[in-house]
Amino acid sequence: MKKLLLFFFIAVVPLFAQWQLRNNGLPAGTHIGASIDAIDQNNAVAGLTVGIYKTTDAGLNWIKISSDTVVQVSMADAGTIYAVTNKKIIKTADGGTTWNVLYQIPTGGVVFNYIKAFQNGIIAEADSAGASSQPLILKSTDAGANWTQVSNTLTGCWSGDVWHRIEFVTPDIGFFHCSGISPQRTFKTTDGGATWSDVGLNNIQFEMKFYNASYGITVNTQVNGSDTEFFINRTIDGGATWLTKSTAIQTYYTRDIEFIPGNPSELFLTATDGLYYSADSGKVWTKQNLDFTMASQGDRGEDIVFVDSNCGWILSFNGNVYWTDNKGNPVVSNSRNEALPKVYTLEQNYPNPFNPSTVIKYTVAPLNNNGSPVQRVVLKVYDMLGRELATLVNGDKYPGVYSVKFNAAGLATGTYLYKLTAGSFSEVRKMILMK
So what's the pLDDT on residue 417? Predict the structure, then answer.
């Protein structure tokens, strides 16, 4: 058998970040930015202390559509926008021309923190009034026409930082970091907020974000004397288990996390000292070249949202909006581009036909969807008669996305097979070597 050259492909691409300041029509001066949401590259809505603003041209121009001081905004489509103020849930169905009050809290200490619109429901939350009461959790299944107050078990809980410590993945599955008890703890619901279970995170979680019901990340810091240590907590089984990793980020306070749609291994994090990017599910972070306007006045990224694999929006604390259509051209520095897919896949090699090398990409899912941390994966190359020519992979792999580069310099022109086996999964594809 002729000797084949095989090595793993590692890409390191240094690029400059390209976030564009897009403030035309937003109020001048310093106005606290609360929340931003977007549905595509052109349509977004931003909530500030002086009102709600909308753009339909990628942030080139903004118009004021409400004078309400909002806590969070949520876009269902270009015309339908939900928002919470301290005491009200409001909605427009015509792009902001008219607004309706959907729900109003009576006088008292309870204030809204959170709202999120799904295709099949809306969830809103307001803090508890005291140590003996529960948060106000509201649910609507008819676009906000009617609301059901969900009786819940979170006695004495409040978020501690408005929407930053609340995350619903669906109208039924959500996470809540309770700041009203000691020690502080994080809880999960699978029945729309009626019952909650402790997921085992007892430190203060400054931010939490879930890509889906299984995969999520929270962030927390610990202060030891003059040193502040920053931690990423990661779960791939819906909070049943967590992997905690210390990072080199030197900040005490984080503001938001955002996954890149379609590639959960990539994510951004806004913090008090800047914007960070990770290409490996939060293991390694690179600070981006984005200097927030009025940084000397303590500006920072407050909320970040990506609508696709390239287009993102950032609202800063001082009410500035930044926009990118190339993912900010982040600096990539990772040895494995890890994702957490739900299913196994074996992709077509690229390029194909090839000469003499090609890249084969595959994904590994949690074994039997039970969150198993590692499993045996085998990837082999065969000729058309079924004779084994090379073993590219034979070992335990964590769930994620992998690439291997195959060099066929010692083989003749022809069609070859490559086969991936992992647990009960098996798939075969053809590739063409053309010299």
Answer: 96
Percent of the chain, pLDDT > 70?
A: 85
Size of the chain in residues: 435
Contact between residue 121 and residue 76 where contact means Cβ atoms under 8 Å apart = no
Structure tokens at 232: 């990423």
How is domain 15-332 classified at the CATH fold level?
Answer: Methylamine Dehydrogenase; Chain H (2.130.10)
Cβ(208)–Cβ(257) below 8 Å: yes
Tens digit of each residue's pLDDT (9 = 90 or more) over 71-110: 999 999 999 999 999 999 999 999 999 999 999 998 777 8
**Cis amide prior to 171 (ω within 30 degrees):** no
Measured distance CA(116)–CA(123) in Å, rounded: 5
Omega of the bond prior to 14 within 30 degrees of 0, cis?
A: no
Cα–Cα distance for residue pair 402/326, rounded to 1 Å: 23
Distances (CA, A) of 132 to 129, 154, 190: 8, 10, 23
Specify the CATH number of the domain 341-433.
Answer: 2.60.40.1930
Adjacency order of strands within the sheet including 63-66: 33-38, 44-48, 51-55, 63-66
Give the three-state DSSP class for 369: helix
Structure tokens that stand for 196 in this block: 């909650």
**Cβ partners under 8 Å of residue 285, min gap 6:** 247, 248, 249, 269, 276, 277, 278
Residue with tokens 């299944």: 141
Residue 341 structure tokens: 């897919």
What span, in angstroms and rounded, lies between the C-alpha atoms of 422 and 427? Answer: 9
SS3 label, residue 216: strand
Q: What pLDDT sits at residue 395?
A: 75
In tens, the pLDDT along 305-335 reads 999 988 999 998 888 899 988 888 654 333 3
Task: Supply the DSSP string of 93-150, one letter for each residue.
Answer: SSTTSS-EEEEEPPSSS--EEEEEEETTEEEEEE--SSTTS--EEEEESSTTSS-EE-
Strand-pairing partners, residue 382, are 388, 417
Report the distance separating Cα 398 and Cα 430, nearest Å: 26
Q: Could you tell me which of 2, 45, 39 has the C-alpha nearest to residue 25? A: 45
Supply φ then ψ for residue 276, to 5 degrees. Answer: -120, 150
Instruction: Put the strands of the sheet holding 388-397 in their side by side order.
Output: 388-397, 375-382, 414-422, 425-433
The DSSP letter of residue 349 is P
Q: Where are the domains of the chain?
A: 15-332, 341-433
